[in-house]
Write a structure and sequence with these properties.
6 strands, globular, 4-stranded mixed β-sheet, about 80 residues, single chain, about 30% helix, alpha+beta
């Protein structure tokens, strides 16, 4: 199995990643903001950084990870 390092001590299975999104670009859309709020309310939002998040990752398990790594960096790791 291949894993992708997403920041800190955190990794996710490469095959479980549904999407990687730039937080600045995606958060300009109301539907994305609503999605992230709903994920937080449901306990599916996991912040893996103490820094300002730059991207988020959606996995097939329904979890959403906020990370300090940029979307381009994460895409390069997949």
């Amino acid at each position: 199995m291949m894993y992708v390092h997403i920041g800190g001590d955190n990794v996710v299975r490469r095959k479980s990643i549904i999407g990687i999104f730039d937080l600045d670009q995606a958060s300009q859309n109301k539907d994305t903001v609503d999605f992230l709020r709903r994920a937080e309310k449901e306990g599916r939002l996991i912040n893996v950084t103490d820094e300002l998040p730059k991207a988020f990752i959606i996995t097939d398990g329904g979890k959403v990870y906020l990370t300090q790594l940029g979307a381009k960096t994460l895409l390069g790791r997949t």
